[in-house]
Amino acid sequence: MTGASNRYPTRDLQARDAAHHIHPFTDTGALNREGPRIITSADGAWLTDSDGKRYLDGMAGLWCCQVGHGRQEIADAVHRQMCELEYYNTFFKTSHPPAVALAEKLAELTPPQFNRVFFTSSGSEANDTVFRMVRAYWDKMGQPEKKTIIGRWNGYHGSTLAGTSLGGMKGMHEQGDLPVPGVHHIAQPYWFGEGGDMSEEEFGLWAARELERAIDEIGEDKVAAFIAEPIQGAGGVIIPPQSYWPEVSRICKERGILLVVDEVICGFGRLGTWFGSDYYGLEPDLMPIAKGLSSGYLPIGGVMVSDRVASVFIDQAGDFHHGFTYSGHPACCAAALANLEIMQREKLVERVADDIGPYLQAKWTGLADHPLVGEARMVGLVGALELVPAKGDRSRAFEPAGDVGTLCRDLSFDNGLVMRAVRDSMIISPPLVLTHEEADLLVERTAKTLDDTYAVLKRDGRL
Ligand code: PMP
Questions:
Q1: 3-state secondary structure of 379
Q2: Atom from ligand 1 closest to the CA of residue 124
Q3: Number of folded domains in the chain?
Q4: 197 shares its domain with 294
Q5: b/e per residue, 324-341, with b = 16+ CB within 10 A?
Q6: What is the pTM of this model?
Q7: How many angstroms is it from 95 CA to the middle of ligand 1?
């Protein structure tokens, strides 16, 4: 028994959790029978649980902890801000220094068309803001019939009504009779799973042109915007073929619809550029952000608003009837500013592009040699492994989908590595401060986890 386990008695915490806590995206009955693991502390790329076991945090929390855990500097900045002005709102002709400083910093870091931000507390709220802002924009432009927003199947934009609706997760839509009216979904650029006989490039063009077909079907005068993640995260780290984004960009420009690029995961260095839009050369009109903005130290998100959109709101009189109690929360802004200061000082984005990114990618893609792995892919520091029953045959998947991924995820935890399973893809998105030794360990533990998974499947006659 360690000191930590005495301070945090695992069974007792699990029982109290089961009695009173409903977890996100969880089968509560099943979890209550098993009991959650209790994470009690974290440092750098490492987590410690209530039994003293250490895990390499291959997911940077929930894709968010860019600068690693346990940065005293961020805690100190928040403490100072809390002592000076713990909270005030930004409604009613009011602002405060941390909101001003963060807005200015974001204008500096984001692509040149962005000079303004609308603050929220999360990525979901950012996408709710997008939903209302897009429609308000077209109203102000005198084209109120331009209402439909096009998203993609298996895209993820959050869990609120608008976020769930814009996203294309069918399981989420089924709960709560969503999407709301005025949202249309098109195919995702998921070549490995859905590319059939097409080459990657052909499939990328086909998937992009689904947007054009949808615009023709709905009517250009009725379509307001297209929303997408540069690389789909929660959908399974789906890296689009190279042909995809240039074609989507062309279509959005030619057809006069707004392009909304959801940077909640890809933003803040994940791809080795400040934003996914920089990586793919995109020119979005709106850009939801969250997660890496504060490395998750405190909840904060926002929507970057391009001059094209902002000018319409600024030039025309009248309120935008939208906002949150915590829009621009001073302590959250202070956390974000301290986080961005670390990212710039330690050149973490450059590090992902030139150093730890290529280092981990080389080792990660080597896992494609494993008999369970159909594809190993990674950009920057976000990657996936496709687990398959028949290597070399993309048409065959495990049935029922998700069981093998869950098995592999649980074995990964046993091996001291946090990986996430999306269906039967294994996902990693580690902190940007990952060291070379930690990258070696991450790949070693992944390889062992694949071997363990393979052994269980063989034993059970599933391979
Ligand atoms: N957009 C994307 C691309 C996301 O990945 C997420 C969260 N994983 C969200 C939006 C929602 O963010 P939040 O959970 O902060 O509401």
A1: strand
A2: 16
A3: 2
A4: yes
A5: bebbbbbbbbbbbbbbbe
A6: 0.98
A7: 26
